[in-house]
Design brief:
Length: 172
């Protein structure tokens, strides 16, 4: 290892020393995920420029509402749905049943496996990835993106109505 790289590594390790001392916190793997996300977003923005497309001056409130509802639903589907457990299984372990059609799991393994597990179990964490996909999709394939967002947004509304209906039946 080059002396400069070794010195940089020692500085970084010294800066984060003691963080999460009571448990295994994969900071290096988190940093890698941050890098992957930012590289993907930067690559998407570069692709927009190279393709000659224009970025929108702003998103309309209707797009923010649609993409927001769709992001909420798709993130929850990926992070909590029992059917999508097959996608999370390499990184997670089942704990118990959760909300309607959902499961509770925990991240397993160490390092990158654990960091991915923590990412895919957290709908709030997935929101940024999913929302970026919808917004960048609206630049490259706006009709298809709005159609897909419409599907997930409609399901989000239906989910809330299902919960409200069930709650109203329990009060009667």
């Amino acid at each position: 290892m080059a002396p400069e790289v070794k010195q940089a590594r020692e500085v970084i390790e010294s800066a984060v020393e003691g963080y999460g001392a009571d448990e295994s916190v994969p900071l290096g793997s988190y940093a890698l995920l941050i890098g992957i996300f930012n590289a993907g977003l930067a690559g998407s923005l570069l692709a927009v420029r190279l393709s000659g497309r224009e970025l929108p001056a702003r998103l309309a409130w209707s797009e923010i509402a649609l993409f927001g509802a769709a992001t909420h639903r798709l993130s929850r589907l990926l992070a909590k749905d029992k059917v999508t457990a097959a996608l999370r299984a390499p990184f997670t372990a089942f704990e118990e049943k959760g909300g309607p059609a959902e499961v509770e799991e925990k991240a397993r393994g160490a390092g990158f496996q654990r960091a991915i597990g923590e990412l895919v179990l957290c709908p709030y964490c997935l929101d940024q990835w999913v929302a970026s996909g919808f917004v960048m999709g609206s630049v490259f394939a706006p009709r298809m993106t709005r159609l897909l967002a419409g599907v997930f947004g409609t399901v989000a509304v239906a989910d809330f109505l299902q919960v409200a209906y069930k709650a109203s039946q329990q009060k009667l």
